[in-house]
Write a structure and sequence with these properties.
binds (2S)-amino(carbamoylamino)ethanoic acid; binds manganese (II) ion; mainly beta; globular; eight-stranded antiparallel β-sheet; 19 strands
């Protein structure tokens, strides 16, 4: 059946909305029994790589040249240095140069974010981190109790990026149109709404990926009768001119 070339996906210099009907799978070096949907990469001007890894039982990731953050959507992972299995809502961060295996113990779907570390003088690189979102407290964004943020990587100068969960009660919205130097990678985990990206107002729903370039005007309002939730990457804690 032809789809007549129709999709909600949109790729502009300032942003990408990538909906599941446009996902193309590939493999990355060292991956075994797994495929990657590469959503964001330096090829589009991003300063990081974000992909969804789909594993068969026993599947593995290959090595990375940078730091790596994994967040389990479905299934279970075992990873060097992490006690027990990492199940849904579980996450792990590995510093650059940390040689580690990440393997799926069952069919699994995992968010993988990788970034080359930007050192900053007088600050040692951060240590490995792992946990589960259910154990992470949330804070209200700009005093809005209906818009809550969970910070998965410590917000400290040792770490040069953040990965946060943002949960909007139905009808909640960002209190402002944000325009900032940091870029974002975003995966819709639950619910949906309208994302303003640049000069487009786009309907978005669970499973969609969004990349926002630095300075991309952005705003989100949650629609529907269930909360909207997304996982969002942002570069942080570094001078825009680079290493100091
Ligand atoms: O942290 C952020 O910049 C976040 N509020 N941006 C967003 O949700 N688009
Ligand atoms: Mn933002």
């Amino acid at each position: 059946m032809h789809n007549l070339g129709v999709t909600r996906s949109s790729y502009k210099p300032t942003h990408l909305l990538q909906t599941p009907d446009t996902f193309v799978r590939t493999t990355l070096p060292g991956m075994k029994n797994a495929v990657a949907i590469v959503h964001a990469a330096p090829q589009m001007g991003a300063g990081f790589t974000q992909y969804t890894a789909e594993f068969e039982a026993g599947g593995m990731l290959g090595p990375t040249p940078g730091q790596r953050f994994v967040y389990v959507l479905e299934g279970a992972l075992e990873a060097d240095g992490v006690a027990g299995l990492i199940g849904p809502g579980g996450y792990a961060y590995f510093p650059e140069g940390n040689v580690h295996n990440v393997a799926a113990t069952e069919k699994s779907c995992v968010v993988v974010i990788e970034k080359r570390y930007v050192p900053t003088s007088g600050v040692a690189a951060g240590l490995a981190v792992s946990g589960n979102e259910k154990d992470v407290a949330s804070t209200a964004l700009m005093g809005d109790e209906d818009l809550r943020v969970q910070t998965l990587i410590p917000d400290q100068p040792q770490y040069d990026f953040a990965v946060n969960l943002m949960t909007y009660q139905p009808g909640a919205a960002l209190g402002m149109v944000e325009i900032h130097v940091m870029e974002h990678g975003l995966l819709m985990l639950e619910g949906g709404g309208i994302y303003r990206l640049g000069d487009e107002w786009l309907p978005v729903t669970k499973g969609d990926f969004i990349w926002m370039a630095p300075y991309c005007p952005q705003w989100f309002g949650a629609l529907g009768k269930t909360p909207a939730k997304y996982l969002i990457y942002k570069d942080t804690n570094r001078h825009p001119l680079g290493e100091v």
